[in-house]
Each structure stands twice: as C-alpha cells, then as structure tokens.
Design goal:
Belongs to the ribose-phosphate pyrophosphokinase family. Residues 11-119 form the Ribose-phosphate pyrophosphokinase N-terminal domain. Pfam families: Pribosyltran, Pribosyltran_N. This is Ribose-phosphate pyrophosphokinase. By secondary structure, the protein is of the alpha/beta class. The protein has two domains: 9-150 and 286-304, Rossmann fold; 153-274, Rossmann fold, CATH 3.40.50. The chain is 28% helix and 26% strand. The protein contains eight helices and 16 strands. It has helices at residues 20-27, 70-82, 111-120, 153-160, 176-186, 229-240, 259-264, 287-305, and strands at residues 9-13, 30-31, 34-38, 44-48, 56-60, 87-92, 125-129, 147-150, 166-170, 190-192, 194-199, 202-206, 217-225, 246-253, 270-274, 282-284. The strands form four sheets. A six-stranded parallel β-sheet has the order 2-1-5-6-7-8, sandwiched between helices. The longest helix is centred in the last third of the chain and has 19 residues, at 287-305. It is globular. The structure holds 5-O-phosphono-beta-D-ribofuranose. 5-O-phosphono-beta-D-ribofuranose is lined by residues 99, 132, 171-172, 174, 203, 222-230.
C-alpha cells in the first residue's frame, strides 16, 4: 500500500502577535485555532480547535511577562503532542529569563538556566531574536534542544541607513556588540557609554565626550527596554552635553510599568522598536529574518520523515 505523506505545518499563538500573519504568509503555514480563557479562579482553559495529527506545529509566543503565560504554553505544547503533532517548535522573538545568568548574591536562583531546562523538555527546537547573551556565549550552554538565533541588527541598520548626520550611542559595554555592527552596516559613527546598575529601576550612565559630533542627531541603540531607565539615563547624559535631537531604536520594547510614557517624557523625539514584542512603536519588521530558520527546522523534520 502506498501512503501519501501530507505535509501540514500549523502556526499557533496564544495571544495576537504582529508576526503571526506575516510568518503564516511567508512560510505558507496554516493559522491554528485555539480557545483560551481563564476560569474564575485564575486557572487556564485551553482547547486546540485545529487538527494537528501528523502536523509540524510552530508556536509563536510573546514571552514578555512570562510568569503569567508560561503554564498556558506548557498546556499547549503537551496537548499538541497528545493530539499527535509530529513536531513542536517555538518562535519566541523575545526570549525571557536571559538576564539572571549567574548567582550574583548567595542563594539567588539562576533563572535563565532553570527556565531553559524546563522549556527544553517540551519543544523540539527554538528560534529567537537577539537573546540577552551576556555571560553565556551561546544558548547551547543552557538549552538542550537545537536553537537558532536571529540578529536584529540588520533590521535596525536598514532603518538607519538612508538617514544622515547621526551619532549612534550604546549605553553600556554590553551594547557594543549590536551598536558596532549596526554602525558599520549603516555607516554612522558610534560611541559607547558606561553603565552602573544600582537596582531594578536605578542605573547611572556616563557617556564619553561627544563634542566632536556636535550637530548630529543622537540615536540610542539597545537590545531591550524594560524599565526604560537605561535609555532615560542616556537621554539625560546626552542632554547634559547639549544634544537635543535624540532618538532611540531598540530590538525588544518590553516597556515594563508603562516606561514608554516615562521615556517620551524625557524628551526623546522618536522611539522605534522591532515587532518582536507587540507595541505601537513597532516600526521595524523582523519577519523576513525569521523565515529562513523556521524553514530550516521544518525542512529538517520533513527530511527525517522521508
Ligand atoms: O534599564 P532597563 O530598561 O530596565 O533594562 C534594559 C537594559 O538592561 C540591560 O540588561 C539591557 O541590555 C538594557 O541595556
């Protein structure tokens, strides 16, 4: 008997995401349908409404505020498996729990490692954009599944390319990896500041003397904006040196505790982010950067089947 192999690739997302439709269109994925709600006691209800028997499932997840979303995601992964999904991959454009990458104080949980170990138990592959790799060299140090990292820098460089008279500003040593590659690709000079973190919402940023770049617009570049204090401090330091035209472009705009409102109050003229995290500042689309790695993993699974 000859049995036809029917390839079925379905994309699910627990919450609306700006990349959902773009990825379905560009990768020819079927949009999966879910019923998700909360019971009065706060527990999650989840029902998969699309048939997934034999299908490769791609889950697109906004992992900001992960503690409120992670259990529902686990329910989704395990239910898809029970319903016969052939493979389950996760596209987490923003990968949470990457910043606590060591035990800074005795007794602290190294949450990046615990989270990675837990996620690795439920999925076959993971794709993310610019994870906060600071003390880890690669995701392989904490994830035991195949992973691919997409760099947001080319998308930011494209946005900056046609603009003249800019000075790119990285708030701290960590940001140099992104800022230097964006500066090179977009042909703008850059400077890097020094940051001292004094608490969750308290940082101090010092910038080098930028008088040689008088008259240029400053564009602060960072990977993630959470409390917004790093960017806010950068704005303050730029203003102290007489720079008034200040823009900010970041990969992941989490904007915790309405820090977008706080930032616009600091005198920032423009604030743009990529669409890794849904927000009104999402001017830079990264969908095209995500297509090749998703295709890679889907082809790999299909290759194994044949
Ligand atoms: O200052 P907030 O916005 O809270 O945190 C974001 C900053 O903290 C760092 O880990 C990031 O690279 C970024 O510079």
């Amino acid at each position: 008997m000859i049995v036809d192999i029917i390839e079925k690739n379905v994309l699910f997302s627990l919450t609306p995401h700006p990349l959902q439709e773009k990825l379905c269109d560009q990768l020819n994925l079927e949009p999966g349908s879910l019923e998700v709600r909360r019971f009065p006691d706060g527990e999650s209800y989840l029902r998969v409404l699309t048939s997934v028997k034999g299908a490769n499932c791609v889950i697109l997840a906004d992992l900001t505020h992960p503690d409120t979303k992670y259990l529902a995601l686990l329910f989704l992964f395990e239910t898809l498996r029970e319903l016969g999904a052939r493979s389950i991959g996760l596209v987490a454009p923003y990968l949470c729990y990457m910043r606590q990458d060591r035990r800074f104080e005795e007794g602290e949980a190294v949450t990046s490692r615990v989270f990675a170990q837990s996620l690795s138990l439920h999925i076959d592959w993971l794709i993310t954009v610019d994870p906060h790799l600071h003390r880890y060299q690669s995701l392989d140090e904490i994830y035991s599944i195949p992973t691919q990292v997409v760099q947001g820098a080319p998308a930011l460089a494209d946005w900056l390319r046609g603009q003249n008279g800019l000075l790119l500003v990285g708030p701290d040593a960590e940001s140099e990896q992104w800022v230097s590659s964006i500066a090179q690709a977009s042909n703008h000079p850059y400077v890097i500041g020094t940051k001292q973190r004094l608490g969750d919402r308290r940082v101090e940023v010092t910038l080098p003397d930028i008088s040689a770049y008088n008259g240029r617009k400053a564009v602060i570049i960072d990977d993630v904006i959470s409390s917004g204090r790093t960017i806010g401090e950068c704005v303050r330091a730029l203003k102290a040196q007489g720079t008034e035209a200040i823009l900010c472009a970041a990969v992941h705009g989490i904007f915790a505790e309405a820090s977008d409102t706080y930032l616009l109050g600091t005198g920032l003229q423009t604030l743009v982010t990529t669409n890794t995290v849904p927000h009104s500042s999402n001017e830079i689309d990264v969908s095209e950067l995500l297509v090749p790695p998703v295709r890679h993993f889907l082809n790999q699974v299909e290759g194994e089947r044949r």
